[in-house]
Design goal:
The protein is α+β, with helices and mostly antiparallel strands. The chain contains nine helices and 17 strands. It folds into two domains: 225 residues, PmbA/TldD fold; 216 residues, no CATH class. The chain is 24% helix and 35% strand. A hairpin with a 2-residue loop joins strand 9 and strand 10.
Length: 454
């Protein structure tokens, strides 16, 4: 029952995935033989290359290879889990024994157990997620060096560097359970980033840029990444303070999705059944302006978080999260759904690709609509109260006058309440940041409290 094959040594990754699926089924059969009423197993192998350079010198070159199996067994409604990184037969036998021993001594939990058999995903879908990059360490170093050099050369005010990095990885995973479901997944991920410092002494500013994609051919060029990092960094030089007050606030696209992240946290099953959410009993109530909708599309080809089954083996499907401003549902896996007396939404493991309605062309239009106010390009701290929705975070960005960026600002705190913030969204731009599974553009809020140093 051992397995020693390496992804890179397998001429056919699909064939290797089949080997892992066979191994997973063998483990489940052994759980059954020990008396388990149900069992599920996740088996994965990840490997990749990562390089970091700074000031024209190589700092690190790392190759990683992580392999493991996570096993859960159920004896009725008693549950036991165990895991191992060793896929040799003796280690797998010991892992099965450990999981079964734990289950026999745990208390019963009425929500425990596999998802219902009829909910299992029925048809495998090719989501075009597998795009391995045949890149060696020398080539990776060369690209990182090019990004950093382009950034340092872009502007004389760039005085130092935090470095540039390139990473490339691939993952093969199998989830199987005793319903007979076996799901196979293969995916790749590649990224290139650069972080720079501008100015001197107490007037230094730091910023960065990065590009990420499933297919390396879709990455921005090293020169483009470096120049974008430089542009963002020098734009932050000589920040000024602003007076404390209530102002319109425009979140850049990459910052706007953090607000959706707070929504997702509040409507996730774990927060809800623990009653640690400000959105308890909120399904069917208006949370946003009536023009705003959010749609989850799990089976989007080349989506950054696409999947045809969730972590419970439940089939995924396109569905609304918000429709016409109204919260349509929660985000539930099997366990959390049972705790709440509801049905799973196919979100064990989290939300998949989420798109948010735009009603404006882009950031330039939103700046004009805002007139005067704060453009937020950086957020710091975790000052969000999950129970009340109270929001207070450090921020930096730019002060805007008459629709034009006037000067950079930093050392600010922006505050509000998420329920009120959601309702006061005035516009969302079409300038979507594609580097996330949450696809949305810049977001304009009518008013927030902004605390400056004056």
């Amino acid at each position: 029952m051992g397995m020693t094959t390496d992804i890179t040594k397998s001429a056919d990754p699909a064939q290797y995935t089949d080997h892992l699926a066979e191994l997973a089924e063998q483990v489940i059969a052994r759980c059954r033989a020990r008396g388990a009423s149900q069992a599920e197993v996740s088996l994965s192998e990840d490997q990749g290359l990562s390089v970091n350079v700074r000031l024209g010198e190589v700092e690190t070159v790392e190759r990683n290879r992580d392999r493991g199996i996570a096993l859960t067994v159920y004896f009725g409604q008693r549950k036991g889990t165990a895991s191992t990184a060793d896929l040799q037969a003796s280690s797998l036998e010991a892992t099965v024994d450990q999981a079964c021993a734990i289950a026999r001594f745990t208390e019963e939990d009425s929500a425990s157990g596999l998802a219902e058999a009829e909910l299992m995903a029925r048809q495998a879908v090719d989501l075009d997620l597998w795009h391995p990059w045949d890149i060696d360490a020398d080539h990776a170093i060369e690209q990182a060096l090019q990004a950093e050099a382009a950034g340092r050369e872009a502007d004389a005010r760039i005085s130092n560097s935090d470095g540039a990095s390139l990473s490339s990885g691939q993952s093969i995973a199998v989830y199987a359970n005793s319903h007979g479901f076996v799901g196979r997944e293969r995916s790749t991920h590649h990224s290139l980033s650069c972080s720079l410092i501008a100015g001197k002494d107490d007037a230094m500013q730091r910023d960065y840029w990065y590009s990420t994609a499933l297919d390396a051919a879709e990455l921005e060029s090293p020169a483009a990444v470096g120049r974008r990092a430089a542009l963002r960094t020098v734009a932050r030089l000589a920040p000024r303070s602003i007076a404390t007050g209530d102002y319109p606030v425009l979140f850049s696209a990459e910052m706007a999705r953090s607000l959706v992240g707070h929504l997702l946290g509040a409507v996730s099953g774990g927060a809800l059944y623990r009653r640690a959410s400000f959105l308890l009993d909120a399904v069917g109530t208006p949370l946003f302006p009536d023009w705003l909708s959010m749609v989850e599309t799990p089976q989007l080809r080349r989506g950054l978080r696409s999947a045809w089954f969730d972590a419970d083996g439940v089939g995924t499907r396109q569905q609304d999260l918000v429709r016409d401003g109204v919260l349509s549902r929660y985000v539930l896996g099997t366990y959390s759904a049972r705790k709440l007396g509801l049905a799973t939404t196919g979100n064990a493991g989290g939300i998949h690709n989420l798109s948010v309605t735009a009603n404006a062309a882009g950031q330039e239009e939103l700046l004009g609509r805002m007139g005067s106010g704060l453009l937020v390009t950086e957020l710091m701290g975790q000052g969000v109260n999950a129970m009340t929705g109270d929001y207070s975070r450090g921020a930096a960005g730019f002060w805007v006058e008459k629709g034009e960026i006037a000067h950079p600002v930093d050392e600010l705190t922006i505050a509000g309440n998420l329920r009120e913030m959601f309702r006061s969204i005035e516009a969302i731009g079409a300038d979507v940041d594609r580097r996330s599974h949450v696809a949305m553009g810049s977001l304009l809020l009518g008013r927030m409290t902004v605390a400056g140093s004056r």
